[in-house]
Amino acid sequence: MKIRHAVITAGGKGHRRIPLQTASDVEGQSRTALWLLLEEARAAGIESVRIVVQPGDEAFYLEAAGELSDGLTFVAQDQPRGYGDAVLRAGRSLGFEPFLLMVSDHLFVSLDPARNCARQLVETAEEYGAAVSAVQSTHESRLGAFGTVTGPLYGRAAGLYEVKRVREKPTPTLAEQELMAPGLRPGHYLCFFGMHVITPAVIGILAEQSEEAGEEGLGLSPALDALASRERYLALEIAGRRYDLESRHGLLIAQLALALHGKRREEILASLLELMIQR
C-alpha cells in the first residue's frame, strides 16, 4: 500500500480560522498553522493534499498555504454534518485510495530526529498494509477531548497496538472499565493524536453509517470501531507530541514547543527565565 494523498479537515465552524493563525517555525520563520501542516505532510512523502472547507473559504487557505499551494485542492462541506462526513467526502473525491488524514487544529513536534510524526505513521501503514491511527498516552483528565482506543501490543514493534475498541471522548469510569492498554502508566490511555491513515474500508463503513446518521452528524470513531471488528486496524504510539490549537492558550503552548525544538532553544529558555524573574 502506497500513501500518496493527504486530507486536512477544516470545514467545522469552530475550526475554519484556526489553520490561518501564524506562528514561528523551528527556524524562527513566520508561518501559518496550515503551512506547517502542509510541510508535515510533504516531508512524509505526500504528493497532493485536499482540504475540506466551507464553501467560500478556499481563497483564504490558498493564501495561507503560500509556496506550498502547488497540488492543493479543496472539497466543500456545505453543511456541518460531522467529522465523519468530511472524511467521507474527501475519500470519495480520491477515488477510494488510502490517504493520510490530519486535523487542522493541531500542530505536531516529532521526537524522532530522522522522521516527523506523519512519516512515522505513513511508513507504518505502508509496511503493514492497514489503517493506522496515531495515538499518544494521555492522562484521564483529558479524555473528554479525544477519541480513545485499546488493544493488545502487535508484533515486536515498539508502541504498536492492534485496535479492538474505539470510544469517542469516554468518561474516566468507562475508560477504566473498557479502554486500559498494556504498557501505560496508571490513569493514562491511548488517545488519538490528530492523524490517521484511512483505507477504502473505512470510507465504505462511513458510507454505510451515513444513511443512519442523526442530527449530531457522522462521526469517525464509530466507523473505526466497526473497522476493528472487520479487519486488522492498528494504532501507533507516535514519538512526538500533539498541540491542540483550540485549547486554552493552545497557540502559545504550540509556539513554545516549536521554539524549544529549534536551534535557538537555549536563547528561548534564557528569555523565558528572564520573563519569569521579572514577574
Can you give a write-up of this model?
This protein is an alpha/beta fold and 279 residues long. It has 9 helices and 14 strands. Strands 1, 4, 5, 6, 8, 9, 10, 11, 12 and 13 form a 10-stranded mixed β-sheet that branches. The protein has a two-stranded antiparallel sheet with strand order 2-3. A two-stranded antiparallel ribbon has the order 7-14. The model has no long low-confidence stretch (mean pLDDT 90).
Quaternary state of this entry equals single chain
What is the percent of helical residues?
25-40%
Strand content of the residues, in percent? 25-35%
Q: Mind telling me the C-alpha Rg?
A: 18 Å
- The strand count comes to 14
Task: State the secondary-structure class.
Answer: alpha/beta
Net shape: globular
- Separation, N- and C-terminal Cα atoms: 54 Å
Helices, by number, come to 9
Query: Helix and strand string, N-terminal first?
Result: EEEHEHEHEEHEEEEHEHHEEHH
User: Regions with pLDDT < 50 over 5+ consecutive residues?
Assistant: none
Largest sheet: 10 strands, mixed
Average pLDDT metric = 90
